[in-house]
Amino acid sequence: MLRILYLSLVVLVSPSALAAANPWQTLIPELERGQQLAPINHDVQLEERAPQIKSGGLVHALDGQAMRMPGFIVPLESDGNKITEFFLVPFFGACLHLPPPPPNQIIHVKHPQGIDMIEPWEVVWLSGEMQVKATDIEGLASAGYAMTLSKAPEKYAP
After folding, report:
1. For residues 142 and 129, what is the distance between their CA atoms, to the nearest angstrom?
2. What's the pTM?
């Protein structure tokens, strides 16, 4: 009985189990999961942007995989009624009020048909094909991944 309990705990706290519980963990190479990032410099002036920490590898096995990711949309381009290019980020305020997450925690999406405008605090699910593809939006952030949407974003529900 003790052995079964021990094995259950190992499975529950394994990096693979954590990645399944948090899809954003799947974007971080397994050997890097759980590592501390460099500290954020909070001494920047309001008109300055805190720099993006560029450390962290990418998971090349995700290239071409169908994925469903939750997150917040940071609009980059719109045609007035629809958002045509954006970042998907794991937490509210990323790239806007806080330093951007590392590139392996940003997904770049270009969707010429556009998606409906979404409030910045709304969490959505995106579904589509993941690509390991570096994109740099000068003055904002670098993304390590891109996604081709297979359907419109859905409101988040756990």
Report:
1. 19
2. 0.79
